[in-house]
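Lab notebook, bench 4. Still working through the backlog of constructs that have no structural model yet. Next entry is a single chain of 390 residues. Request: give me the structure tokens for it.
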Amino acid sequence: MGRKGFLIGCWLASYAWAYGQSAPGCDLAIRGQVNDTQSKTHLIGGAVYVRELGRAVSANEAGEYAIPGLCPGTYTVVCSYVGHETDTAVVTLRQSPVVLDFDLREEKILLNTVTVTGQPTAASPTQVIGTLEGAALDRTRGASLGESLKDLTGVNSLQTGPSVSKPVIQGLHSNRILILNNGIRQEGQQWGSEHAPEIDPFVATKLSVVKGAAAVRYGADAIGGVIIVEPPALRREAGLAGEANLIGMSNGRGGVTSATLEGGSRKLAGLGWRAQGTFKRLGDAQAARYVLSNTGLREVNFSGALGYGRDRYAAELFYSRFSTDLGILQSAHVSSLGDLERAIESRQPGYVAGFTHRINNPRQRISHDLLKLKAHYHFRSGGRLNLQYG
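Model written out:
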């Protein structure tokens, strides 16, 4: 057979195949709907695939599909949709149309256990807190509040002789510093440079200084910082406990004695109490070559607390009295600019007398009373109600 005969044969074969496909016996069809089993909604775009022919169609907006032009025979029809289980059906075509609906179930995807672990990262601090407690606080016992805080970074003191020590935080003092004594704002020290805080450091087991921008959350008067004086929590368990301090000072030829006694009730669980007292007596302080005249002091302080608490509520009553009689360095007072210039140029104070425990003018006689009541209640829903009166 020549080349021309071969081409004619191929054309006849392709014509016969095409005629057979459009023959009356190959006009059968499969049609139906693709739905969700649970919601009964139509699955638009569901794929229906005839495996033997490699033909696939998609369901329309009504979830309907149609596969026309099929010859009689047996076909494997596969239906699939994203997120659903695939369904397969075997259909034998002898007449048309054959209705084949697919109801697909949602596919259950089970993931393995996911464990998320991490390490906490410290947020950038918005405030700087310095604290004195434990052994560090014990080393300052006997000193005034202003002198005790000088061990903290950024804290100094403004002194008028050794008897008046006013805390300075980053160069600010008086009404630029807030003092919280047992949660109550104490503002007596804001009067001037010669008014020290009326607080006995022995009432506290922790002294804190808050510096930085976050200090202003305590109020506009805390722009320089906040000094927080925190007494210990009341004893709840039954029994007694106490502490006594006896401190002697060669400079001033005096000393300090302080005692604390606390206990809890055996008959009434949750009831606790504490009593504390301090006595301080000093004469004139001594410099290297002379006496700082009229710098003695006499101080008597007392505090007491009574409280009762259970699982969901507690109440506490606190009272303290600070009383001192102190002398102000006599040479610290000047009446003119000339007096100030002479005091700066002089090698020693203009007035120097012999040592004495006597307190003369100029002097301060100070008494400060603090009464505080606080209570709280925990609701079963998780809320908390706080009450404080000072």
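Notes after review: Residues 253 and 282 are 6 Å apart (CA to CA). Residues 3-21 form the longest helix (19 residues). Flag for follow-up if needed.
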